[in-house]
Amino acid sequence: MDFNLSEEHLMIRDAAREFAQTELLPEVIERDNKQEFPQELVKKMGDLGFMGIMVDPKYGGSGMDAVSYVLIMEELSKIDASASVMVSVNNSLVCYGLEAFGTEEQKQKYLTKLATGESIGAFCLSEPEAGSDATSQKTTAIDQGDHYLLNGTKNWITNGGRSDFYLVIAQTDKEKGHRGINAFIIEKGMEGFHIGPKEDKLGIRGSDTHTLQFNDVKVPKENRIGDDGFGFKFAMKTLSGGRIGIAAQALGIASGAYELALKYSKERKAFGTEIANHQAIAFKLADMYTDIEAARMLVMKAAWDKDQGNNYDMSSAMAKLKASDVAMKHTVEAVQIHGGNGFVKEYHVERLMRDAKITQIYEGTSEIQKIVISRGVLRD
Ligand code: COS
């Protein structure tokens, strides 16, 4: 057992840290206020290889492992969770989904652009009445011989307005239940595909979240991913890796808030000394550090499982459950340590607290993670 990071991993982490400090930090508050994320920054992340971290270089990716992915996600998320969710969705839902299950033609046509950051992707599973209950898809894709006819609505789609390619889950044969669900690649601009208004959110406000509408969209047969009826398993397998990304995002939000609270507590004075010298604050820092380290172990274990080729359904669910709870709990504590300043935007911790909440919700709520974990425990 070796808990040390390799030289290569340390270099990757430092590159992500440098990028986050120099490129993301300067205008992160403005982006949160204005609810936008500029295209130049997406391009820069693409140039650094952050948009196709685990993709084979033959498809334009960086060919790194899942541990590297987690390290990059943590560093970006310490500063800007809106940037990191864009990276996470593109990498672990869209690129992974296409690389693992797409045809060679689909990889050449779509993955090569997504992995370099030339194009961005979105993953469309959630619906007004099917988020956690993912088998209850109301979006339909009816087989018309040489194409499918897609109709329905998808909600809370990350990268929804700015993506070029969308992986859309839809019900082809209702009689067959989850075995009648398919996944399709939809291109922006296809007739009948409409992008709805942007959501006004509590957190990750820089990230671009939309409702999408599909009205009689003709989807060519070759845009289906996998065999007929593979769509639900495609979504589940892809989300297992996505949960490692969101767990790493939560870890980054927590450790970013911790670092700010630690620094602040060594500078701010009260009762004649730095507040870190008061046990009330020192114990909070101790709890934060311990919980963050515990979350890091679970996140790294999930990434390691993926790199080893082990099943990571359980480990990714445990990592996301733990890291998102730690992020929520300790961003609140970071605000508390900052006192009145914690409530003010320029100190960053209030944004991290708002950003933390979504990590307990998207890519499977904490309650869904407990379903996955408890089923695993009871099966063993
Ligand atoms: N990998 C491969 N197959 C999987 C799988 C996985 N991780 N998880 C489930 N499946 C398969 C099952 O084996 C089953 O197939 P068979 O009937 O052929 O055996 C099928 O999928 C249905 O599984 P199950 O019966 O467990 O479905 P449930 O309706 O009980 O739902 C949960 C299972 C709750 C785990 C699933 O719906 C889920 O993860 N929901 C949350 C989805 C989500 O993350 N939404 C957020 C929006 S996306 S940002």
From TrEMBL:
Gene3D superfamilies: Acyl-CoA dehydrogenase/oxidase, N-terminal domain, Butyryl-CoA Dehydrogenase, subunit A, domain 2, Butyryl-CoA Dehydrogenase, subunit A, domain 3. This is Cyclohex-1-ene-1-carbonyl-CoA dehydrogenase. Belongs to the acyl-CoA dehydrogenase family. Keywords: FAD, Flavoprotein, Oxidoreductase. The keyword Oxidoreductase applies. It comes from Seonamhaeicola marinus. Residues 6-118 form the Acyl-CoA dehydrogenase/oxidase N-terminal domain. Residues 122-217 form the Acyl-CoA oxidase/dehydrogenase middle domain. Its cofactor is FAD. Residues 231-377 form the Acyl-CoA dehydrogenase/oxidase C-terminal domain. One of its GO terms (molecular function) is flavin adenine dinucleotide binding. Its EC number is 1.3.8.10. SUPFAM superfamilies: Acyl-CoA dehydrogenase C-terminal domain-like, Acyl-CoA dehydrogenase NM domain-like.
